[in-house]
Request: fold
Amino acid sequence: MSLILTLVSGLCWTIVYIEGIRLGFREKTYAMPLWALALNFFWEIFNSILGYAEVGFDAQVVINIVWAICDVFLVVTFFRYGYRYAKKYLSFKSFIFGSLLVFAVAAVVEYAFIMEFGLAHGRAYAAFLQNLLMSVLFIKMFIDRRGDEGQSLIIAVGKWIGTLAPTILFGLIGGGGLPGPNTFLLIVGLLCSLFDIVYILLAAGKLEIFARSQ
Reply:
């Protein structure tokens, strides 16, 4: 069951990343919010390297490497197309500096989780908390763009299932060096599902949130 849930999560998130890359280049935009992208990028780099050093090439390490490679392309779309969303407020140099600062902060935060809690607990706590942040930021992106520019139902559903699988694994069953059940991870994972379902309804056009034009 642990391997099945790991593979489900790996497949769903890989689909999310590939769809985000496809939409980013096709629509000349970026598909993942900056803070979520930066945190994911360094989570996957650190856990690919440290996971391999600890256990070699197991399923999760291979998945992490695939995700890290996908993240490189998502980062490219952000720096290539992201400035058009900020040019009303920032110079190009300020945009680049601010974005690089976000990535630097993300690296420090991810490293701090591992140093404070150890690899098994640190990667799990960081992953679930940044996933909750991501769930909220995807909704904010939808609102800011007043629609699904750079987003799709594939991303919304893939993110939900890709997060629900590890919620069951780490929150109820236990795995990856963590005993189950884990109340903290279960609660954070369920909160992710709550916001992810809202995002699915938005992406599917089933939830009207914008004021009607007078």
Observations:
- The beta strands are 174-175, 178-179.
- Residues 2-203 form one domain.
- The chain has a mean pLDDT of 95.
- The radius of gyration is 17 Å.
